[in-house]
């Protein structure tokens, strides 16, 4: 076994490199704000934040296609290795032409988003004196779409470590290029160089997948064949994934808008924003741990080895609980200090608020394990059904809190939101229990 193969086979090493990459992603996100708030006038920076939000929305519009390609390509790869039955193309098995059509779809998303941005700049809907910088930054953000597809495709063919190592290098270089702006590097040149680094890394990853799958150039360009197969065999999965993605986006973000409609007080909004930031950090950590286990989870599932699958899911859940409890302990120790520093003393957080956030984070860790595992197995209709109670609860939590306990609306809302997450977590635990019993 080669050295790279040994690294790919080590769950511990894979977890460590994924956690390192998660840390670099968090640093990069902080560096973007840290740099551009210092080099742009305040009005330009406010417009820049709108650009970032638009870029995030555009990226989220891929509707889980990368999860679909991972689930299908992973099964195809395992079948090639004899782990499960033959991949019957006539019955809807994976075809190499699917890769080209999915990359085309992502390219159309980027083109469409860029067109909308150009219109916004032309008509002054996004007011800036630096349109070239804004366009370049938007394109650099949109490269996360092919990067995510490259990551999932490479992971499906047992290339997890290769991608994470490459992406760590990419993140280090792009962070360096960002910080160089503070030393006098032109921001447009910095972002253009970041685009170049990203294209090189993504191109290498796709070329590696091309070689491992024994693909030919015509597979990438056979759009009619690829679309015909997609339309015939898994438009239902795309629809379910799109609905699930929209449901999750609305459920996680709806309280921002419902709180704003319910009250003008700052504290409830700041409390939710604090929880949201903690939940994002936790979900990224849990995702890194789960993705490190996915090669074994998918292999056990498709081989029908339920005992091994149960063992792996217990380990993944234990790792998620370690992260959740570690973050919770940190919040109970320094959460009030962090809250005051983060929001410049504009509100305070009480002990009961912290305990409710802790309860919500523990439930969220369970939910994250289930979502990441079942997405990798292609169970999109099931995830959609599980997401609807969360969506309904998220939308109703604010008006219910206001109706039930208006004088302590903020505590009532946090309590209801934590209770909703706990209920949804129980549903996901039931799903995982049934998964290992099938």
Task: Describe the structure in your own words.
Helices cover about 85% and strands about 0% of the residues. The protein has helices at about 5-10, 10-40, 40-60, 65-80, 95-120, 130-140, 145-155, 160-180, 185-210, 215-220, 225-235, 235-260, 265-305, 305-340, 350-375, 380-405, 410-435. The protein has 2 domains: about 10-235, no CATH class; about 245-435, no CATH class. The radius of gyration is 22 Å and the shape is globular.
In short:
The chain has 438 residues and is mostly helical. It is built from 17 helices and no strands. About 2% of the residues have low confidence.
Jot down its keywords.
single chain; 438 residues; mainly alpha
Mean pLDDT across all amino acids: 84
* SS-derived structural category: mainly alpha
How many domain modules? Answer: 2
- What characterizes the major β-sheet? none
Number of strands: 0
Query: Could you state the order of secondary-structure elements as H and E?
Result: HHHHHHHHHHHHHHHHH
Rg, Å, rounded: 22 Å
Query: What's the oligomerization state?
Result: single chain
Fraction of residues in β-strands: under 5%
Number of helices: 17
* Gross geometry: globular
Low-confidence stretches: 85-91
Distance between the termini: 34 Å
What share of residues is helical?
over 70%
Task: List the topology elements.
Blueprint: H1 3-9, H2 11-39, H3 42-60, H4 65-80, H5 97-122, H6 131-142, H7 144-156, H8 160-180, H9 187-212, H10 217-221, H11 223-233, H12 235-262, H13 266-303, H14 306-342, H15 351-376, H16 380-404, H17 409-437
Helix pairs in contact: 2-8, 2-13, 3-6, 4-7, 5-6, 5-11, 6-9, 7-8, 7-9, 8-9, 12-13, 12-16, 13-14, 13-15, 13-17, 14-15, 14-17, 15-17, 16-17
């Amino acid at each position: 076994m080669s050295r790279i193969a040994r690294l790919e086979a080590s769950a511990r090493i894979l977890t460590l490199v994924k956690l390192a990459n998660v840390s670099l992603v968090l640093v990069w996100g902080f560096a973007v704000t840290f740099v551009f708030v210092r080099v742009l006038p305040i009005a330009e920076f406010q417009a820049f934040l709108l650009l970032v939000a638009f870029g995030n929305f555009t990226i989220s519009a891929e509707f889980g296609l990368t999860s679909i390609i991972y689930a299908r390509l992973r099964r195809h790869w395992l079948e090639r290795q004899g782990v499960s039955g033959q991949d019957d193309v006539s019955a809807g098995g994976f075809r190499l032409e699917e890769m080209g059509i999915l990359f085309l779809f992502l390219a159309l998303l980027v083109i469409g988003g860029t067109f909308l941005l150009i219109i916004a700049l032309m008509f002054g809907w996004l007011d800036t004196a630096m349109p070239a910088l804004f366009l370049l930054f938007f394109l650099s953000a949109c490269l996360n779409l092919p990067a995510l597809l490259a990551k999932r495709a490479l992971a499906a063919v047992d290339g997890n470590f290769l991608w994470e190592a490459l992406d760590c290098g990419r993140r280090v270089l792009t962070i360096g290029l960002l910080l160089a702006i503070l030393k006098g590097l032109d921001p447009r040149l910095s972002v253009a160089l970041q685009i170049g680094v990203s294209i090189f890394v993504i191109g290498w990853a796709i070329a590696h997948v091309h070689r491992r799958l024994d693909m030919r150039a015509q597979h990438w360009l056979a759009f009619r064949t690829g679309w015909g197969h997609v339309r015939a065999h898994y438009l239902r999965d795309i629809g379910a994934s799109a609905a699930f993605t929209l449901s999750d986006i609305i459920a996680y973000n709806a309280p921002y808008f419902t709180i704003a409609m319910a009250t003008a007080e700052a504290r409830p909004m700041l409390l939710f924003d604090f929880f949201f930031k903690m939940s994002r950090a936790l979900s990224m950590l849990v995702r890194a741990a789960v993705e490190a286990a996915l090669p074994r989870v998918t292999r056990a599932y498709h081989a029908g080895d339920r005992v091994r699958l149960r063992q792996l899911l217990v380990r993944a859940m234990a790792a998620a609980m370690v992260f959740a409890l570690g973050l919770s302990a940190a919040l109970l120790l320094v959460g009030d200090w962090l809250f005051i520093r983060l929001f410049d003393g504009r509100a305070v957080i009480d002990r009961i608020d912290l305990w409710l956030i802790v309860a919500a984070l523990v439930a969220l860790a369970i939910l994250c394990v289930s979502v990441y595992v079942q997405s990798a197995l292609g169970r999109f209709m099931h995830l959609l059904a599980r997401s609807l109670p969360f969506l309904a609860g998220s939308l109703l939590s604010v008006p219910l809190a206001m109706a039930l306990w208006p004088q302590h609306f903020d505590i009532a809302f946090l309590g209801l939101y934590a209770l909703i997450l706990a209920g949804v977590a129980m549903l996901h635990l039931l799903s995982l229990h049934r998964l290992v019993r099938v």
